[in-house]
Design a protein that fits this description.
Blueprint lengths: L1 H24 L10 H10 L5 H34 L11 H14 L4 H22 L1 H5 L5 H28 L2 H12 L10 H15 L1 H9 L11 H23 L5 H13 L3 H25 L8 H22 L1
């Protein structure tokens, strides 16, 4: 098991490097592979004096933002599926994306600065997360991971999401034409204006560390939910930890790139289908695979119709829908 996990994770890390290389050399102005080492050296020294180094600096910054966003969504998807005990759950199912959308679009409507929009999106997601916790705290604190508690938590999240979407629709209907395009692009999911920040990386590292330390307990809770407490698992603390970590990851990802769909649904599901349900391998593998997927999707989004750029959320949905339908077909056959 350990040897297999090492081989799989090493292969995924190699794919991470390849995807970042592909993102760095691809664009409306191609960067020759022979110029990549010298350009990378300039970027690492912080002195981008040539055109190649300038292009690589811009593309790598965007690619790294795409990687941390995709990784956060995929990890949040695994956590949400473990919390709700439903492999078809995704990070947006509890309405956190809706809260971020309300905050961000409100800031755009009132012509807030870029940092105000980011802060409003993060604050909106956290506010919905806290409200959801207050409404469903009994289920999250329950010592038994019961189906009824998960269903009530899911239903509460769906109701909050519907309320947030009503506010989003209201703001879009009254927004002036000059701001409507940027608001719609944010709703779809777009990395064109995303900036490299350290906070999403810190959130991802902290959540992944918690998840890896709790991986054995998550396995027990997933396989023996009703008996998990009697087997020594602190189910209440585990469920609350999964809830808050998935909420922070979703808030961080949505703040960076808007509502990018399907990554938190298809990537964990595909990794579970290919690698098995053991969370000790599933958690890091899905994290790396989610980052790779979004880096490649964003690279294609900015190169297919270059110099025009597509919203990456459209591309992830176009790829995600057929992949998910194929996965469902295989599950039905089994």
């Amino acid at each position: 098991m350990r040897h297999r996990a090492i081989v799989i994770l090493a292969a995924l890390l190699l794919l991470v490097a390849v995807s970042l290389l592909f993102a760095g050399i691809s664009g409306s102005i191609a960067l020759p592979l022979s110029d990549f080492p010298s350009a990378l050296s300039e970027v690492m020294r912080g002195k981008s004096t040539t055109l190649s180094a300038t292009l690589l600096d811009l593309r790598l910054g965007r690619a790294l933002t795409a990687f941390v966003t995709g990784a956060a969504l995929a990890l949040a998807g695994v956590m949400m599926q473990a919390l709700l005990r439903n492999p078809l759950a995704d990070p947006y199912v509890l309405g956190l994306s809706g809260g971020a959308s309300v905050g961000a679009l409100a800031a755009m409507l009132f012509m807030g600065a870029a940092w105000v929009i980011d802060a409003a999106a993060f604050g909106g997601a956290v506010a919905v997360s806290m409200l959801l916790y207050f409404l469903a705290r009994r289920d999250l604190r329950s010592g038994v991971a019961a189906e009824g508690g998960a269903s009530l938590l899911l239903l509460t999240g769906v109701i909050l999401s519907s309320g947030c979407m009503a506010l989003v629709t209201l703001m879009l209907s009254i927004a002036p034409d000059s701001r409507l395009r940027s608001m719609v692009f944010w709703m779809i999911g777009d990395l064109s204006g995303a900036q490299m920040r350290w906070l999403p990386w810190l959130v991802l590292a902290g959540a992944l560390l918690f998840a890896l330390r709790a991986a054995r307990a998550i396995n027990v809770m997933a396989m023996h939910a009703e008996a998990a407490a009697t087997l020594g698992i602190r189910v209440s603390a585990l469920r609350q930890g999964l809830f808050f970590c998935s909420g922070l990851l979703t808030a961080s990802a949505v703040t960076s790139a808007g509502s990018i769909g399907f990554i938190g649904l298809i990537v964990p599901h595909a990794c579970r289908f290919a690698l098995g349900p053991d969370h000790r391998l599933l958690l890091p593998a899905a994290t790396l695979a989610g980052g790779i997927f979004l880096v490649l999707a964003d690279t294609l989004a900015r190169t297919i119709l270059a110099p025009q750029q597509l919203p990456v959320g459209v591309l992830t949905a176009m790829v995600g829908v057929p992949i998910f339908l194929i996965q469902l077909h295989h599950i039905r056959r089994k």
